[in-house]
Structure prediction request, 208 residues.
Amino acid sequence: WRRMEDALHKWIGVQTDPRGVKMDELTFDAYLEVRRSDNDGEWAAIMTEYAIDVDMTEHLVADRSLAEMRTAAIDSITLVNDPYSFRKEIHIADSVNSVWLLMYREGLKLQDALNKLATLVAENERNLMAARDRVLAGPLGNRADVRAYVTELEHLASGNAEFHAISTRYHGRDFKGKRFISGEVTIRALPSTDEVAAADLAGIPPAN
Prediction:
């Protein structure tokens, strides 16, 4: 419970910290650190323990590889989210996205920034799997609770990726029933979360 409480307090702190929107002041690593809380990754990783009734508090301290796998799973939430959400957020001037950061920091054009981000997604996935293998081969690898947690961290990362590939949230209402993992897309205005909520309250369907 203490770790959950600390994570919630950190999330509140990040949400009220002006650094979170001053993208021109963040390095890529600092951006990921902010997003681990801002994007609910810390909360999700702790809730994973709660969901399967395990406590990894001591094991995360004892096994560096387990902590590294957890961090990679958390980072995958942001790294996968950003290329999918970019075309939705561009129309509401939301710059809290690693695509913008790579363009700004490295002077990349949009396609080059997306290509680099795709490389970082794949690299993070390899890091996650390598850390997983070290955990399972290490002193904690025979513990049922640790093995269960490792499996759920894999599900956290892969489930997040699949959600972004199929969700109408990032592709528009006419996308329902489809799956997108690569190819060309048209950047067009999609309804923001606020617009969807307002349309729902008004009893009218939001635009695609």
Remarks:
- The first helix runs from residue 2 to 15.
- The radius of gyration is 18 Å.
